[in-house]
């Protein structure tokens, strides 16, 4: 971890959407090491991946279009940090994030958005990210957003081989796009498998190893969020987090009890494993 | 609200009354038609159920994309609570999320976008960002995700489980997703390709928009709800048709299908 999240990591991207495929083993390790994140980029809908870092007070700026827990409630760390002005929010919409990652992956200097999106109030509160530009092919002004090029991306996949060729176990959300756009990629997986197994379905192996700097085998590593193809979200644990993190003292209790008080191996044995966050196929 | 129709639960002899979530799914499904394609996002159990119900009853050639996971025509059964459940890939086919974001921008693919908000105003604008000033919010919401795309879809169907004066406000504090903007003049000047909001379904009533004033008013009251109750729980003046119809309760067929789709009772827990 220390090799990857260095002081010059200006933009860290965390994959996963809502409480699914959050690379929590990697995120927890950032918190254990107390590393500051200068700017955090999320998928269009972040959950515990962003909120735990915000609860731990490690984020200077966040680029996102949503941090919340969907049917379970609002995000306590995000709320406290934004309402208390301890994080700078660079609010975007889904189009700016997704097309911005595409522009980052494709080397485009900027990317215009479909006309009409400018009538929302989002561009007005984030003029650094949304700028008017003359359409060179027509007589009109459109809004453009900058490319997103994470210095480092943490994404979760179901499995990968030692070379980093990685397979998603269900939806890829914007995680594949993040991996294509990022300068360095660390993939967290439920299991490392032999290359021969990956080679059976090359078209379903949608992250090629040449984009990946490290594979971290972390069974149960999405817990308490779901890992597509492996286990469902642990909503009881998420509710415990939401209840505790509402107040600063409770947030400190959560962090001590589940993150900084022990290693990821301990978390895996004492929290993730009893919750069933291992191996068994679910869903499909 | 008083529950109306009852249906016999599978495997038991006891009739169970319908719930507000079931009524809302049935009501929304009646507004979905063959040949249309719908898309939806976060916390979308009600519209997912509505879409599948429409497919299995009156609109077999209706299509829907469950944003997040992006299954196309998810089979549900069981319906889940999260739009990113892997179970939504039990479907006819699937897109990727970047595909869906592209097609939302195309503007001529999706006919219907289901949306909601912490605040919904008299012109159907939605706010998921902040209550109070954006810079100094009294309540910081999660954020609007893809709501700006409401500007580009043929019709917007709004739904919320919260019919209160805090949700239904005269004007949103922040416009995450556009409705009819500030009213007829601003709407005409914006010349958007989208058709704007068409319907709002809550646990109390179904609402629509006046074609001239573009303001929200009542279309029908759900069974057992009275007009004063809706007025007290709406933060602006609603226009009221005369006569004011009652929303048809879910039919026995609708309820049977909904309960097959939702064996965990998620709609009942909303």
Brief synopsis:
The complex is a heterodimer of chains A (284) and B (270). Chain A has helices at residues 24-33, 48-55, 76-83, 94-106, 122-125, 175-181, 195-199, 235-245, 248-260, 264-272; strands spanning 12-14, 37-42, 59-64, 88-91, 111-112, 131-134, 141-145, 152-160, 166-167, 185-192, 214-217. Chain A is of the alpha/beta class and 284 residues long.
Which structural traits does this protein have?
heterodimer; A: 284 residues; alpha/beta; Glutaconate Coenzyme A-transferase; three-stranded antiparallel sheet; 31% helix; disordered C terminus; B: 270 residues; 2 domains; nine-stranded mixed sheet; three-stranded mixed sheet; disordered N terminus
Explain this structure to me?
With 284 residues, chain A is of the alpha/beta class. Chain A has a single domain, classed as 3-Layer(aba) Sandwich (Glutaconate Coenzyme A-transferase). Chain A is built from ten helices and eleven strands. In chain A, strands 1, 2, 3, 4, 8, 9, 10 and 11 form an eight-stranded mixed sheet that branches. In chain A, helix 2 (48-55) links the parallel strand 2 and strand 3. In chain A, helix 2 crosses helix 3 (76-83) and helix 8 packs across helix 9 (248-260). The longest helix of chain A is centred in the middle third of the chain and has 13 residues, at 94-106. The radius of gyration of chain A is 19 Å and the shape is globular. The two termini of chain A are 32 Å apart. By secondary structure, chain B is of the alpha/beta class. Chain B folds into two domains: 1-110 and 249-270, Glutaconate Coenzyme A-transferase (3-Layer(aba) Sandwich); 113-248, Glutaconate Coenzyme A-transferase, CATH 3.40.1080.10. Chain B is built from six helices and 16 strands. Chain B has helices spanning 20-29, 45-56, 97-106, 184-190, 227-232, 252-261; strands at 6-8, 15-17, 37-40, 63-66, 71-74, 91-94, 112-115, 119-121, 126-127, 130-131, 139-140, 155-159, 168-169, 197-201, 205-209, 216-221. Chain B has a nine-stranded mixed sheet with strand order 6-5-4-3-7-12-14-15-16, covered by helices on one side. Chain B has a three-stranded mixed sheet with strand order 9-8-13, with no helix packed on it. In chain B, strand 1 and strand 2 form a beta hairpin. In chain B, helix 1 packs across helix 2 and helix 2 crosses helix 6 (252-261). Mean pLDDT of chain B is 94; it is low at 1-6. At the A-B interface, helix 3 and helix 4 of A face helix 3 and strand 11 of B.
């Amino acid at each position: 971890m220390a090799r990857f999240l260095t002081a010059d990591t200006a933009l860290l991207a965390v994959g996963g959407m809502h409480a699914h495929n959050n690379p929590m083993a990697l995120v927890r390790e950032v918190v254990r090491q107390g590393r500051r994140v200068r700017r955090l980029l999320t998928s269009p809908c972040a959950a515990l991946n962003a909120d735990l870092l915000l609860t731990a007070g490690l984020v200077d700026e966040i680029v996102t279009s949503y941090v919340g827990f969907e049917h379970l409630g609002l995000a306590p760390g995000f709320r406290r940090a934004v309402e208390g002005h301890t994080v700078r929010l660079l609010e975007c919409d889904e189009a700016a994030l997704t097309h911005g990652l595409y522009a980052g992956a494709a080397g485009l200097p900027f990317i215009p958005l479909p006309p009409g999106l400018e009538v929302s109030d989002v561009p007005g509160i984030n003029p650094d990210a949304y700028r008017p530009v003359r359409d060179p092919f027509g007589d009109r002004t459109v809004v453009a957003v900058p490319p997103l090029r994470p210095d480092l991306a943490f994404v979760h996949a179901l499995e990968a081989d030692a070379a980093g060729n990685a397979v998603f176990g269900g939806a890829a959300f914007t995680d594949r796009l993040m991996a294509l756009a990022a300068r360095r990629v660390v993939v967290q997986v439920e299991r490392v498998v032999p290359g021969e197994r990956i080679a059976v379905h090359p078209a379903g192996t949608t992250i090629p190893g040449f984009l990946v700097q490290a594979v971290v085998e972390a069974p149960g590593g999405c817990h308490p969020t779901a890992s597509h193809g492996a286990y469902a979200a642990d909503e009881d644990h998420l509710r415990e987090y939401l209840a505790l993190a509402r107040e600063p003292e409770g947030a400190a209790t959560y962090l001590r009890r589940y993150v900084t008080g022990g290693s990821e191996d301990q978390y895996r044995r004492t929290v993730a494993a009893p919750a069933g966050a291992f191996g068994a196929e679910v869903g499909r | 609200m008083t529950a109306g129709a009852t249906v016999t639960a599978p495997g038991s002899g006891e009739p169970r009354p319908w719930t507000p979530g079931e009524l809302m799914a049935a009501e929304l499904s009646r507004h979905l038609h063959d040949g249309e394609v719908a898309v939806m996002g976060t916390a979308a159990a009600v519209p997912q159920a509505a879409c599948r119900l429409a497919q299995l009853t009156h609109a077999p050639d209706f299509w829907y994309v469950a944003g997040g996971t992006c299954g196309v025509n998810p089979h549900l059964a069981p319906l889940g609570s999260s739009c990113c459940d892997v179970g939504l890939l039990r479907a006819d086919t699937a897109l990727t999320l970047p595909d869906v974001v592209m097609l939302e921008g195309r503007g001529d693919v999706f006919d219907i976008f289901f949306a909601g908000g912490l605040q919904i105003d008299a012109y159907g604008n939605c706010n998921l960002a902040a209550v109070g000033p954006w810079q100094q919010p009294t309540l910081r919401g999660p954020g609007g995700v893809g709501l700006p795309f409401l500007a580009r879809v043929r019709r917007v169907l709004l739904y919320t489980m919260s019919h209160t004066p805090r949700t239904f406000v005269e004007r949103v504090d922040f416009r995450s997703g556009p409705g009819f903007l500030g009213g007829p003049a601003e709407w005409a000047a914006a010349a958007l390709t989208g058709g704007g909001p068409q319907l709002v379904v809550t646990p109390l009533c179904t609402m629509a928009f006046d074609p001239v004033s573009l303001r929200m008013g009542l279309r029908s009251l759900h069974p057992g709800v009275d007009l004063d109750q809706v007025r007290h729980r709406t933060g602006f003046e609603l226009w009221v048709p005369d006569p004011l119809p009652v929303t048809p309760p879910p039919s026995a067929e609708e309820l049977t299908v909904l309960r097959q789709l939702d064996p965990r009772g998620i709609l009942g827990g909303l």
